Amino acid sequence: MQNFSKNKKMQVAGEFLYRLQKSWSSKLGIGLLVLIVLLCLIGPFFSPYGINEIDLSSIYAGPSAKHWLGCDTMGRDMLTRLLYGGRYSLALGLVTALFGAVLGTVIGCIAGYFGGKTEMMLMRIMDVWSALPSLMLCILISAVLGSGFFATVLALSVGNIPNGMRMVRGQILSERTKEYIEAAISINCSKTVVMFQHLLPNVIQPMIVNTTMGIGSAIAMAASLSYIGLGIQPPDPEWGAMLADGKTYVYVYPHLILVPGIAIALVVFGINLLGDGLRDALDPKLRD
To answer: Is the N-terminal amide bond of 237 cis, ω within 30° of 0?
Structure first.
């Protein structure tokens, strides 16, 4: 029985990978993201400039052979800071999306499985929570907790929890009355085992796609917080902070805005392509 279950899981995984590699959007998205991640991880080691190395003779310098993407308001190399800043932005997006997804999944499982007063109480809390505009909530939390990586992650994560919770709860409600759940209960499986070992693997697919899409949104939101003076702050070269640093000179030195702006757009574009590919590979209604 265990061998059959293992073979079945391998078959499902193989089918998923096959469908994923057939999707042009997923291949393009994965290729673009892998390229950006590799550049951010290893690129700075090959740069002849330091992350905060100031060259007063190159202040506001445009792209050239010496500085491929130009220099910023303090004469620092934009390419070096862009690659370093990508580490902050990508990490913020990934950790924020995962943190929000995990909390939303756990709360959704509890609400969907137990039902009754527990579900009603959790749903009312989520209703109040989601009634607040996400950006306003992020700004409020970030202003209270201050700047920094973990404070920004917490501020960005809270807005993702209600949507993820509702998604998982809806899937749990449609699955909890099926025969395999009744069989698990009949052999005295604990409620924790039923929820997270039997129910969750069968309802997690939409959450995977939603979380992947959420990474791009989190990166853009993190850039927004840094742009208005919250989130990651200078001299750390997060992409949103770089945008804020160059906003005053956008008409005179447009490369200060274009360089980090294009980087954010490319990452969000790649993540959205990957999310589309995951949706096509995981959704049984879209199978050939």
So the answer is: no
- Are the C-beta atoms of residues 215 and 259 closer than 8 Å to each other? no
Q: Which residue, 57, 49, 38, 59, is CA-closest to 81? A: 49
- Distances 17 to 13, 134, 142, 278 between C-alpha atoms, Å: 6, 34, 39, 10
Residue of 174, 146, 141 whose CA lies nearest to 156: 141
Between the alpha carbon of residue 143 and those of residues 35, 137, 231, the distances in Å are 34, 10, 9
Structure tokens at 128: 């109040």
Q: pTM of the full predicted structure?
A: 0.83
67, exposed or middle or buried, with CB in 10 Å at 0-12, 13-18, 19+?
Answer: buried
The sign of the dihedral angle between the CA atoms of 239, 240, 242, 248 is positive
- 77, β-bridge pairs: 71
**What pLDDT shows up at residue 147?**
75
Q: How far is CA 54 from the centre of its chain?
A: 33
Buried b (16+ CB within 10 A) or exposed e, 106-137: bbbbbbbbeeeeebeebeeebeeebeeebeeb
Give the span between the Cα atoms of 134 and 108, in whole angstroms. Answer: 19
- pLDDT tens for 101-143 read 899 888 998 888 888 888 899 888 888 888 887 778 888 888 8
Q: Pick from 100, 99, 89, 104: which is nearest to 149 by CA?
A: 89
Q: Measured between alpha carbons, how far is 243 from 254 in angstroms, rounded to an integer?
A: 11
pLDDT tens for 233-285 read 777 788 888 888 888 888 899 999 999 999 999 999 999 888 888 877 776 55
Q: How far apart are the first and last CA of the chain?
A: 29
